[in-house]
Amino acid sequence: MILALAAASAMGQSSSEKQSPQPVPQTSQQVPAAPQQLAPTQQLAQPAEAVKQVIQQEAAETQQAQAAGQPVSLPGAQGQAIAVTHPAVPVPPGPVPPEEIKPAPPTPIAVKRVELGSEHTWDPQWDVFIEENLPAELMTPGMAKAVHPFCPRFGELSQPDKRAFWAYLFQALAGAEAGLRPTADVKHLDPTVAVRDPVSKRTVRQQGLLQLTYEDNQRYGCDFDWDNDKGLRAGDPGKTILEPERNLSCGIRIMKNQLVDLNRPLVTRKSYWGTLRPGTVSYKVFAKQMANVPMACGAKTAPRKRAVDKGVREAEMTKPVSSQGGEE
User: Fold this and answer.
1) Domain count, the chain
2) How far apart are CA 294 and CA 77, in angstroms?
3) Residue spans with biased composition (Basic and acidic residues) (predicted)?
């Protein structure tokens, strides 16, 4: 079971009620062993028992998927700050072979959400979606300079490790922008920000995991259906702009525009996202969610636990404001 769904069931029961994963038939195909990782610069933060149980459930469901003949990914990448890695996950048919997919490590806020039993955490299947839809340009050695602050070894990484880095980056961005809530919906009251959306003809709202707008259809070729969404309440998961895959797909387009088309670095004052503009409070929240970036990236130092915990608290404070009724 993917982490997002398993969290609710694993945390919604007392420890005495939780059951061990059901045994699955033995097959000749085995779950790939986790690769050995470089020793971290300091001791990794140990996960709570609830997180370990969720990981065990994920592993059991991966075995069940394999027994049914479904291909699976590589085991998840090890982060540099938290001793949690996802097992291999089922991979639906797509443009990238399963053996080239590697789930990203969890961000600090994703781990905390599981510990607290929240339904709003990161789904490893979103890693698969991101990694299957990355533009070729984001995988080239030329991206090394743009992402150097968070992944100094990007140019030397294998293709699966590059994909895991991008999946982690979008997870951290979603944590800083929306607290990992797919239905996050913000309507700004500041007149300098509350501009008119040319698609909806209403005051702009920033929505979904990456806090996007309907105007992004025109600017980046995103696939949000305003005609479908306009009659739905703010935060309604039936909105196309709140569908995680559509929201993430649009975010990938915006990221490509920034890094490739405009030839700008990841962190710049001209970024679409305020969380990627240096010197802002929002950027500090994002940077702290990057604390558990894949170890293969070779970040020079692992953050102390105090800094990781502070990053979780700050991300938790990014609570989008929802309103009643349809789009306003």
Assistant:
1) 1
2) 6
3) 306-317
Residue 213 lies in a domain: no
The phi and psi torsions of 79 (rounded to 5 degrees) equal -85, 170
Rounded-to-integer distance, Cα 244 and Cα 247, Å: 5
As given in the structure block, the two tokens for residue 325 are 């009724």
Q: Is residue 221 included in any domain, yes or no?
A: no
Burial category of 190 from C-beta neighbours within 10 Å (exposed 0-12, middle 13-18, buried 19 and up): exposed
- Domain-embedded: residue 208: no
* Distance (Å) of CA 220 to CA 10, 195, 239, 271: 39, 18, 19, 14
Query: Considering Cα of 164, then 170, then 176, then 178, what sign does the dihedral take?
Result: negative
Query: What is the per-residue pLDDT across 95-138, written as a single tens digit (0 to 9) for each?
Result: 999 999 999 999 999 999 999 998 889 999 999 999 999 999 99
Please indicate, yes or no, whether the overall pTM of this predicted structure exceeds 0.85. Answer: no
Please give the Cα distance from 174 to 7 (Å, whole number). Answer: 18
157: in domain: yes
